[in-house]
Amino acid sequence: MSLTRRYFKSDITFSSSAAIALVIATVGLTACQTGEVMNNGYIFDQQSLALAPVGSSREQVLLSLGTPSTTATFDGEVFYYISQKRTRAAAFMKPKLVDQNILAIYFGKDGIVKQEANYTLKDGRVFDMISRTTPTGGRDITFLQQILQGGGQGVNGARNFLNNLNPGQ
Questions:
Q1: Average pLDDT of span 130-134
Q2: Does residue 103 or residue 28 have the better pLDDT?
Q3: Is the pLDDT reported for residue 166 higher than 70?
Q4: Cα-based distances in Å from 18 to 26, 28, 31, 112, 154
Q5: 153 and 146 Cβ atoms separated by less than 8 Å
Q6: What is d(CA 71, CA 153) in angstroms, rounded to the nearest whole number?
Q7: Mean pLDDT, residues 16-34
Q8: Architecture per CATH, 35-126
């Protein structure tokens, strides 16, 4: 008597269904993006930086490095090339600033490069580039707190404020 395995139709259907489910799950999981790296701004290399050494003209800097990200507020004597690297673990999370480089090209009054500087995240504070605001020292108080505080006059400040609203009383 020989022992052979018999395959029933339900066994074949179950194994093929399991294989299809496994393939769909694998494709679905590989489509999920687990991390994202975003590079923003001007990413310079040493080769293009070597084309604009100290002593070169403003035009030579523009030709080798391109248009700067921003210039100095007064007289345009500094070109800033800014780049940032941000990462986030999932698409719905807030990006985290990982690296920031600022290449500053300083010009003299005659338009010749007098100094080059490369600033990184260690050299300064992180500030919001979008709203162009930096955190300030001190307290932020609400309108109600201002009324109750009365400019340092306590209860009399609130009373004076109300009296100023109704001058006839």
A1: 51
A2: 103
A3: no
A4: 12, 15, 20, 71, 75
A5: no
A6: 46
A7: 70
A8: 2-Layer Sandwich (3.30)
Chain centre to alpha carbon of residue 94: 9
The one-letter amino acid at 55: G
Q: In this structure, are residues 118 and 103 in contact, taking their beta carbons and an 8 Å threshold?
A: yes
Distance CA 158, CA 137 (A): 26
- C-alpha–C-alpha distance, residues 45 and 48, integer Å: 6
Contacts 24+ apart (CB under 8 A), 85-94: 85/37, 85/38, 85/39, 85/40, 86/37, 86/38, 86/40, 87/35, 87/36, 87/37, 87/38, 88/35, 88/36, 88/38, 89/34, 89/35, 90/33, 90/34, 90/35, 91/33, 91/36
The tokens describing 20, both together, are 């299809």
Beta pairing class for 96-107 and 113-120: antiparallel
Residue ranges per domain, the chain? 35-126, 134-161
CA 25: distance to chain centroid? 34
Evaluate the CA torsion angle 34, 129, 62, 101 in order and state its sign.
negative
